[in-house]
Design goal:
heterodimer, B: 122 residues, two-stranded antiparallel sheet
């Protein structure tokens, strides 16, 4: 019991905004999936989501600090996701054009890339974005260096100056945990 | 009205089918593991995403739509991670690249103005 109490106090003292965000997100998902507003559903959902929020205490991605939410960060994130979607569609057409053309104009290779992102979450997001977009796959992420495999020379070198990187850099600068 | 809906659904489904087909053709035609993963990792993401998006118009009820959306989000998050894992495993094991591929194992440091050795020397 004292363990639970410690968890509770610890969690809510450290990061009250993050807890509320996690709780609300889980609750909305629960209500949408269970698709009924009985009091039983709400009660069970409330208890389960409360326990999950407590357990999340152990799983924080960011070691220090509280979650900050700012409007600018939200706008930047939306912009990032929009351009990411666009790039994914373009990437697919590039790959389709390469695969379906009879001569298959590929010149594959590995390239090393330096990224200047400090936190873990933006790094992982950026690496995954590189994997999803034109002709490039992240092979390895070690410190601040990315090893990228490119399908053609043009794609591989193009990733060195990519405009999504600037948005991600902006995003990291005024971010808390939730970017 | 139903016909318009069906046309939209069919466009999305066939788009998804096209990209999945391109993924399979790419897996057969391309030379090595890394290049094959280019075709599979990208085309499967968009292909299954389009099919899921097309199904959203067909299913009845909020619950099913939410489930489909969750499936879409999971696909879009898991697919690059798995692609990255397979590629990294292949790289760590020392799988050979295709014949005429290039390796750039340096990067340019702008502040110091010189080249540094990187991870990529194999």
């Amino acid at each position: 019991m004292s363990f639970l109490k410690n968890q509770l106090v610890n969690r809510f003292q450290r990061d009250i905004t993050g807890s509320i965000i996690i709780f609300v997100t889980l609750m909305i998902t629960w209500l949408l999936i269970s698709a009924s507003i009985d009091w039983q559903h709400i009660l069970v959902g409330f208890i389960l989501m409360f326990m999950l929020t407590l357990l999340w205490n152990q799983l924080t991605i960011d070691e220090r600090g509280k979650t900050k939410v700012s409007w600018r960060q939200f706008k930047l994130l939306m912009r990032y996701l929009f351009f990411l979607e666009l790039e994914i569609v373009i990437a697919n057409f590039h790959v389709a054009a390469i695969v379906l053309s009879p001569k298959m104009p590929i010149s594959p290779g590995l390239i090393v890339l330096k990224i200047d992102l400090k936190k873990d979450l933006p790094r992982v997001l950026y690496a995954n974005s590189i994997t999803m977009t034109p002709g490039t796959i992240t092979v390895d992420l070690e410190g601040d260096r990315l090893l990228v495999h490119g399908m053609t020379k043009h794609h591989a070198f193009g990733v060195r100056s990519w405009y999504l990187y600037d948005i991600m850099k902006d995003l990291e600068e005024d971010s808390g945990k939730n970017d | 009205m139903l016909i318009i809906r069906d046309i939209i659904v069919v466009i999305f489904l066939f788009g998804g089918l096209f990209f999945l087909t391109v993924g399979v053709i790419g897996m057969i035609r391309l030379p090595d593991v890394y290049n094959r993963l280019h075709a599979l990792g990208k085309c499967d993401t968009l292909g299954s995403g389009l099919i899921i998006f097309g199904m959203i118009f067909l299913v009845p009820g909020m619950t099913n739509i939410v489930k489909l959306l969750l499936m879409g989000i999971l696909t879009f998050t898991i697919n690059p991670v798995i692609t990255h894992l397979i590629t990294k495993t292949a790289y760590v094991r020392g799988t050979a690249l295709a014949d005429d591929s290039f390796v750039v194992s340096t990067y340019y440091e702008e502040e110091e103005g010189e080249f540094f050795m990187g991870e990529g020397d194999k």
